[in-house]
Amino acid sequence: MDAKLLEILVCPVCKGPLTYVKSQQELICKADRLAFAIKDGIPVMLQVEARELDVLEEVQ
To answer: HAMAP family, alphabetically (predicted)?
Structure first.
């Protein structure tokens, strides 16, 4: 993931910051407990495509 792109991307739901999880190729919104996939180097920033994080799943 390009560092400059990470600086400007925000959660499409709450406009909050995102955390990049390289091992899972996801951008995580801790506030909304959503994980946005990165496919072929492109973040998929659609709420309907986001994975909901389990309550027990640790958010880094």
So the answer is: UPF0434
